[in-house]
Amino acid sequence: MSSSSEVARGAVCGDLCSQGRMKTLLIEEKRKMGGQCATTSELENYPGIIEDTGPGLMERFRSHAEKFGVEFERGRVAGIEVGDDGFHKEIRLADERTLRTKSIIIATGAAPRILGIPGEKEFRGQGVSYCATCDADFYEELDVVVVGSGNTAVEESVFLTKVVNKVTMIVVHDEGKLDADRVAQEQAFANDKIEFVWNSTVDAIEGDGLVNGVRLRNIKTGETQQLATDGVFMFVGTVPQTGFAKDLIELNGAGYIKTDDKQQTNIPGIFAVGDVTDKFLRQVVTAAGDGAVAAVAANGYVEQEEYWQQQVLKSQTPVLAVFWSPLEGDSVQLIQSLEEMTIAYPDHRIVTVDTYKNQMLADRYEVQEIPAVLRFEQGQEQLRLVQPGAVELNQLFQGSKS
Amino acid sequence: MIELNKENFAEETAQGVVLVDFWGESCERCKELMPDVEALAEQYGQEIKFCKLNIQGNRRLAMAQKVMGLPSIVFYQNGEKVEHLSGEELEPAQIEDVIKNYVA
Ligand SMILES: Cc1cc2nc3c(=O)[nH]c(=O)nc-3n(C[C@H](O)[C@H](O)[C@H](O)COP(=O)(O)OP(=O)(O)OC[C@H]3O[C@@H](n4cnc5c(N)ncnc54)[C@H](O)[C@@H]3O)c2cc1C
After folding, report:
1. ipTM of this complex > 0.90?
2. Is A29 a pocket residue for ligand 1 (Cβ < 6 Å)?
3. What is the DSSP string of B34-98?
4. Over 60: is that where the pLDDT of A272 sits?
5. Which of A6, A36, A40 gets mutated to test ligand 1 (max ligand atoms within 8 A of its CB)?
């Protein structure tokens, strides 16, 4: 699961692992890193990079990640599962290999949407294209149609005008309205090699061996018309790549992964970043930003979880876990009282959980009010006191053996 | 793999089963696939002929073969185009499946 956000995350994670703790593996199904970004020859709006190609920037991301010790593995992720302990996760690859890990960051991005109109599949590679960089050369001095009106459609149309004779953009909206942002719109309107057909969709792509035209439908009048063209470039949006995760991870109605402000999904320890997530702006810079957040959050998750496993769940002696907050005077008092009491019960250990910093554990044990004390033995919760009074505290030490 | 161009295309594809890998410098997916196609050539090279064609300078030739998108893997049988695989998401396994149809 790679590309821009992933490789950027790799660089950030690598940074963390060079500080000593995390080992990072990047799984990518393609031989070459870089995802969608590597398919554009003109990369815009990545800060600090005034001019570069998509593959060029991705190569830099990759070597940055490499420098920090990120390892790379080629494979297609077919499924992910959470182990019985809730902590370890298993990644299943399409070739049946499985990998075990403590935290996963999903950055599987999006792939071009296929409309499924007649001729679209048939003329793939014979006049239907989803990648201007790949195929522009074929259309030197020829006429092409671009379907779509978002940023990608406009940017790729402008790119195509350097090679082709004429670009006709097929736009579903009213005259003068494109989905692209204002800067891109102005670029499109100012380019005299770009023409528009408004209020229209493509009903079919036609040809004989090679594409020779499209059948357009005006959605307002219902009228259809033929338009002769040598090629059709489809930029009608993208679909998130979440097939492997849909049974486990919560998605929004359109199939994008829902995350919180730490990029965490509904499953603790599984994060998602970049184009695959439910977000406002899908660009390289936002994907990389998500990656930075997720890397730090994943590091925090693993550290907290390992601490809890070792100190509480695997403890040989009884543990009193105090869920508290430094902002609550009562909870500070409670910790003090318990510490005094454990002098008489030296086999009992106190572990404190600051619920302000670690909401995850509070959620897992459904601790809604603080302070609360949970007594654990052999990893199992034996007793719980919520906002206990001084006398009740004795119960905590009478739980078992003695 | 044999490099094809205007001069040798007709001759090299005239007989038997021939696979032609159409590629170009600006097609990242093509360059990614090439090593896999080369590996297939090692494996099946005895039974079918493997060729590649760089579309730079051979654009008209490609178009005459009804190839207008990359990557494109085209199969010829006795000079006739019999199969055309294309698209960004084209996988080596799909290519191998078609090869197997012709070597069986
Ligand atoms: C033509 C075009 C031009 C663009 N131009 C710009 C621009 O100028 N500036 C800009 O900021 N943004 C641009 N973008 C958008 C930008 O490319 C994306 O926002 C960015 O690439 C998102 O990165 P990502 O890591 O989230 O996903 P992606 O780039 O989609 O990468 C996802 C990766 O995951 C891999 N993958 C998917 N599923 C699996 C699986 N199951 N197992 C293993 N691997 C898997 C894929 O192979 C891919 O490499 C452009 C996009 C396109 C298509």
Report:
1. no
2. yes
3. HHHHHHHHHHHTTTSEEEEEE-TT-HHHHHHTT--SSSEEEEEETTEEEEEEESTT--HHHHHHH
4. yes
5. A36
